[in-house]
Every structure is written in structure tokens, then in C-alpha cells.
Design a protein that fits this description.
mainly alpha, 5 helices, globular
């Protein structure tokens, strides 16, 4: 791995971590496109890498800070986590075994567009 790749990966991690901790987004919104465009990973490899990245930092440090500040609903988090495990398994099987990588990219892009549109134009 080149020094440029190492620096790029570290920058991706810092930026994604800041955004995740600051506005509560999953780092995948930043990490997946960055790994595809700046590092050259395939969509599926970027997604798998992003999932592996999320486990330790989000699972400990960010949650700890929100808990400490009284901004965490444990019951909600536990229920969603249980369903998330099932959904994550199903989603990964769909991406790997059913859909083409091109289709996965399109789905990912559409999700980003819908979220962006809602955040920018629909004030609730």
C-alpha cells in the first residue's frame, strides 16, 4: 500500500468520523463513495469495507458520548439493532448474490438522492 493510499484512507476515516459524530449519519454515506472514487474499490468491496469499519468506532466512542449526554434511547436502539442484524444479512445477500454491482450502485445513488432531497427541500 502506497503512502498516498494510506493518507487517503486516513482522511476518509477522519472526515467520515467527524460527520458521523456531528450529524449522526452512518459513515457509509461518506466512506463508500470515497473508497470507490478515491481508492478505486468496487462498489461491493467498498460496502463490505465500510461495514467492517463501522463496528468498533461507532459501537463504542460515539455511542458513549451520546449516552453520557443523555441523548440515547436504549430500548429503541436495542429493538432496531435486532432488526438491523436481520436486515443487514438479507441486504448483503441481495447485494452479493442477487443484484448486479451496477444495480447496487444505482440503488445506493438513489438512496443518497432521496435523503439529500428530503433534507434540503422538506422541512419538517
Amino acid at each position: 500500500m502506497s503512502i498516498l493510499t494510506i493518507i487517503t484512507l486516513l482522511l476518509i476515516g477522519v472526515i467520515a468520523g467527524i460527520l458521523s459524530g456531528m450529524i449522526g449519519i452512518g459513515g457509509g454515506i461518506v466512506i463508500v463513495p470515497a473508497l470507490v472514487f478515491f481508492v478505486g474499490l468496487s462498489q461491493l468491496t467498498a460496502q463490505g469495507t465500510s461495514l467492517a469499519i463501522m463496528l468498533p468506532p461507532v459501537g463504542f466512542m460515539a455511542v458513549y458520548n451520546y449516552h453520557k449526554a443523555g441523548n440515547l434511547e436504549w430500548k429503541y436502539a436495542l429493538l432496531i439493532s435486532l432488526a438491523f442484524v436481520v436486515g443487514g444479512y438479507i441486504g448483503s445477500k441481495l447485494s452479493i448474490d442477487i443484484f448486479s454491482e451496477s444495480m447496487v450502485k444505482k440503488i445506493f445513488g438513489m438512496v443518497l438522492l432521496v435523503v439529500a432531497f428530503k433534507l434540503v427541500f422538506i422541512d419538517k
